[in-house]
Specification:
single chain; alpha/beta; five-stranded mixed beta sheet
């Protein structure tokens, strides 16, 4: 009863419940009826603030996750040079660029060439101009003599060869110096 007078409602309710189990008394019952509404209010108050604390924690976690996703997207965009052809010299470099294109939801065009290839020299300026025309597409260029591991991984049997890649998967290809075919496929897949 002293705890109830001091405003320690929860402790008072616990003590009064124990006392009523041991020896029920009318006086204990009447005090318990006065104490229980206050205990109920306190418990509701605790539940409310626990719920608010959890919601705030979830909002902060969601905000942090969004911030991390935005940072990854910025990093991916910085790895992709808009309007430029990026040289590929190793499989690690290719994987980095393709992952960046996937995170940025961009189409990637992988062009295999060789310095000794005549048709490659003819189509190279077109590939560069397409990179300027389509800045939201990642244009990657690999010389099969410099990047033998990349060429082997993609089973290159002739040059020039163009692979169209979206989300890390090959969706189309053009083999040979077909300028119109290259532009048509690029228009088709860049719009998708």
């Amino acid at each position: 009863m002293a705890k109830a007078m001091l405003g320690q409602w929860e402790e008072a309710a616990n003590d009064l419940h124990v006392a009523s189990k041991l020896d029920f008394d009318e006086e204990i019952g009447s005090i318990l009826k006065k104490v229980e509404p206050n205990v109920h209010k306190i418990r509701e108050h605790h539940k409310k603030y626990e719920r608010l604390r959890k919601e705030r924690h979830l909002r902060n976690a969601e905000r942090e996750k969004k911030r991390q996703v935005e940072a990854l997207e910025r990093e991916a965009l910085s790895a992709l040079k808009a309007g430029q052809v990026m040289g590929i010299h190793s499989t690690g470099e290719l994987d980095t660029k393709l992952n960046a294109a996937s995170r940025a939801s961009r189409l990637a065009v992988l062009y295999f060439t060789a310095t000794w290839c005549g048709p490659c020299r003819v189509i190279s300026p077109l590939f560069t101009s397409l990179a300027e025309k389509y800045p939201k597409v990642a244009f990657l260029k690999a010389d099969i003599d410099e990047a033998r591991d990349v060429a082997g991984r993609w089973n290159i049997s002739s040059v020039p060869t163009f692979f169209f890649i979206r989300k890390g998967k090959e969706i189309d290809q053009v083999v040979g110096a077909d300028k119109n075919g290259l532009e048509r496929k690029l228009q088709q897949h860049a719009a998708a």
